[in-house]
Amino acid sequence: MNSTSFYYFHTDQFRYEDVKIGDLLSPLAENTYKDYSPADFNVKAVRMGWLPATPYLDKNPIEIIKDAQNQNLDPKDYLINNLKESRIRFAFEDPDNPANFVRNMFVWRSNLLGASSKGHEYFLKHLLGTKSGVLAKEIDESKRPKEIVWRNSVEGKLDLLVTLDFRMSTTCIYSDIVLPAASWYEKEDLSTTDMHPFIHPFSKALDPLWESKNDWDIFKELAKKFSELAKDHLGVQK
Q1: C-alpha distances out from residue 119 to 11, 134, 149, 232, Å
Q2: Overall average pLDDT of the 1-20 stretch
Q3: Quick one: which of 16, 73, 127, 210 has the fewest CB in 10 Å?
């Protein structure tokens, strides 16, 4: 899904958003949604299938399949009926429900908690649950989103933050695990930038130092270990 919406909800920035759609609408537009917030439109877009979301529902798809099979129902019919009855909801309708938290995050070669994040202090407060510089006040009841269940503020949603990077960035400093990645001249790789329309290939000049590995080898080893663990923890799932 798009990272802007992902972090807008998971870092709880919607709780501080005092912009209303009415502030942005043309004077000639219909006023049906003038009291809605940007978060409301994200929720509506998810509900109508326009916007991919992670997580998508407040119930694990594996459990949805199991329950449907136990009731001898087609999974699609089971899901539609439960959505209509609100027994299953879209996760972004209730982003501060623990069932809808992002629990594990793997960051690859991005200083997410430094230069990349927009609203760094909200990432620290709501995603990590550490000291932050949040000075804004949460919006009052009259400005709250209409499509979202409003719960008490949550500080610290992540259980695990893993970073794969060769730089000691801000994200590495806040991570539970930093995987030692090989640097530019220690691997065969391709690099691009948003400033130029071409790709930079480069060749390995020396072997990775100490315990570091190139990104691809790290990905392969992670995938292999997850596959081994899944046999015991997940088995065969539909």
Answers
A1: 9, 9, 22, 39
A2: 93
A3: 210
106 pLDDT more than 90? yes
Q: What is the mean pLDDT of residues 218-230?
A: 95
Nearest to 75 by CA among 216, 237, 210: 237
- Predicted confidence at residue 212, as pLDDT, reads 92
Query: What CATH number belongs to 3-53+90-168?
Result: 3.40.50.740
Residue 9: band (very low, low, confident or very high) from pLDDT cuts 50, 70, 90? very high
In the block, tokens 């802007």 appear at 4
Confidence of residue 21 (pLDDT cuts 50, 70, 90): confident
28-32, 190-194, 201-205 — most confident range: 201-205
Q: Is the pLDDT of residue 105 over 80?
A: yes
Name the amino acid, one letter, at 120.
Answer: H
Cα three-residue angle 48-112-160, rounded to 5 degrees: 85
* Separation between Cα atoms, residue 41 and residue 46, nearest integer Å: 9
Contact 117, 133 (CB under 8 A): no
Q: Per-domain residue ranges for the chain?
A: 3-53+90-168, 181-238
